[in-house]
Amino acid sequence: MTFFGKSWQSRLAALCKYIVLTLAAVLCLYPFLWVVLSSLKDNSSIYGDPFGLPMSPMFENYAKAWKGADVGRNFINSMAVCLATLAVLIVITAMGSYILTRVKRSILLDTYFSLGIMIPIHALLIPSVLIFKNLHLTDNLFSLVIMYAAVNISFSMFIMNGFMKGIPKELDEAATIDGCGKGQIFFRIILPVAKPGIATVATLAFLNCWNDLLMGLVLISSPQKKTLALAISALKGSYATQYGLLCAGFVISIVPVMIMYLLFQKQVIAGMTAGAVKG
Amino acid sequence: MSSKRKETLLAAGFLMPVFIVYTVFLFVPLVNTAMYSLTKWNGVTEKVFIGIRNYQELFHNADYWITFQNTIKLVVITLVIQIPTGLLLAYLLYINTKGSKVFRTIFFLPVVIAPVAIALMFSLFYNSEIGVFNRILEMIGLGGLQTNWLSNTKTLLYAVMAPQVWQYIGLYVTIFLGALQAVPEELVESAEIDGAGKIRTFFYVVLPQIVNFTNICVILCVTGSLKAFEHSWIMTGGGPGVRSAYLGVYMYKTAFVNSDFGTGSAITMTIVALSLAITGLINGIGRWRERE
Fold first, then answer.
1. Cβ atoms within 10 A of the Cβ of A83, count?
2. Domain total in chain A
């Protein structure tokens, strides 16, 4: 079954296969590569030699974006909002899912929590502006944390339930015999065992929060409170002709997501495809 | 007895936070949007109840139908391009390809990047000054096709759709690859032993096994298009007028640029209704086919 033992047709087929796949891979990666290279150029070398390597890499583009355009602050805002959202989301969905899968089953509540999967974020924009106005949290990053937690509950419960159902019942029973209450069982036994589920929820929710634009557009207005997604969309207006700086801002905005993806690829793909099947 | 009560209390306590956040910040707002859609309201003055007049006006509104058509075009184009391409690439990865994990990692990469960032990137590519697309066309001898992609009315809408189509192909590759890997190997092997070639095996043995996943992909294409916002908003602001806007963009413009919360809510409700109806329809067809 070696490559060279095959007929010329199958070798040709294999060759075509790799050509198509490589071409597709290049189409996926090259745009990013172009932006990364351009982020190290000045305007004249982007005009003059758009496909070449940067002759004298301009790392100051990054400094300018981070400090001058204040992308650094936006980066910290985004990170803070995402981490706070994950903390809230994971705690409340893990507790809820524990009850609904292992203590008191309720088809009614399962159905209720799954409804949110079908709700596009657009449907929440207008009311959320009013809710946070009434709560005196207008233009406050805390409002984003709550909304992001709310919109991620449905899929988080879905994934979390899947993992919690898979944990053997005997674990709870043994713990009960040893004199553990339901609360202790949750913190000491279920939570540590459910780690893979939590990791999947965390990864996916992080991507959703980091990448959101719409909720931020309607809830946040002052520049120093903007998340990175908002800042990037604003860069296009205020730095429209400083292409190197624009590209540097782009790179800064995607680096955390890239790292997250490469580290937790398994969780990202498991979560995204579970998200697909649930539709 | 008291331990039973303690358990009930604990269950309530554990369920309460998620229930409250979900109800107050997701469910109630949805109901509110439905109610706002029956009012005339700019967000500041008193709401005036006007029944279904917002909807009646929408259905006679040319802008609404333009964005509706743009959305349907996006659905069709994503269906026609993303699903076959996704299936083809997934199949190529599935048939004993060395490095299939690396390829999958690469194909999925654009999916995780913020649509805002992708839109920014493509607006640089379309840019009339540094425009990479035009340069590439020139390099491969198609200089005659050069145009100002985001201002030429013939190319505008497709230029706005392109990044979205490009970005999410990897999602379908991954879903189909998962589906293909779940097809029992004996089936494929026995077909090949019987002398069916790779292509015939694919169409007669593999494809029928994964047809259910096609339903999921169609639903994803439809709901994804109905939610589409960022690419259009960042690249063109939906303009000129609403020429390159989808329903999502039109809703945002109506509610938050023109401060018409009533009509904005009505547009939202049509988006919600459409995605529920189409998802229900496709699931229904899927179930009906299974029973056949």
1. 14
2. 2
In B162-191, the residues whose Cβ lies within 8 Å of chain A are: 166, 170-171, 174-175, 178
Cα of B86 vs its chain's centroid, Å: 15
pLDDT tens digit string along A15-51?
Answer: 888 999 999 999 999 999 999 999 998 888 888 788 8
Regions of chain A with pLDDT less than 50: 1-2, 278-279
Distance CA B184, CA B187 (A): 6
Residues of B in contact with A154 (CB under 8 A): 22, 26
d(C-alpha B115, C-alpha B127), whole Å: 18
At B148 the pLDDT is 85
Q: Which of B226, B270, B219, B218 is closest to B72 using CA atoms?
A: B226
Low-confidence ranges of chain B (pLDDT < 70): 1, 96
CA dist B104 and B86 (Å) reads: 11
Q: Where are the alpha helices (DSSP H) in chain A?
A: 8-38, 43-48, 60-63, 71-98, 107-115, 122-134, 141-165, 169-177, 182-184, 191-193, 195-211, 214-219, 228-238, 243-263, 265-278
Q: Name the residue among A213, A241, A277 with its Cβ closest to that of B230.
A: A213
Number of domains forming the structure of chain B = 1
Cα–Cα distance, B38 to B51 (Å, whole number)? 5
The pLDDT assigned to A6 comes to 65
What is the residue range of A8's domain?
3-38
Question: Which ipTM score applies to this complex?
Answer: 0.91
Cα–Cα distance measured from residue A29 to residue A26, given in angstroms and rounded to the nearest whole number? 5
pTM reported for the whole predicted model: 0.91
Quick one: pLDDT at residue B202?
Answer: 84
Amino acid at position A150, single letter: A
On whether both A263 and A213 belong to a single domain, the answer is yes
Beta carbons of B219 and A279 less than 8 Å apart: yes
What single letter denotes the amino acid at residue B143?
A: G
Whether B225 and B115 have beta carbons less than 8 Å apart is answered as: no
Instruction: Let me know if residue A247 belongs to a domain.
Output: no
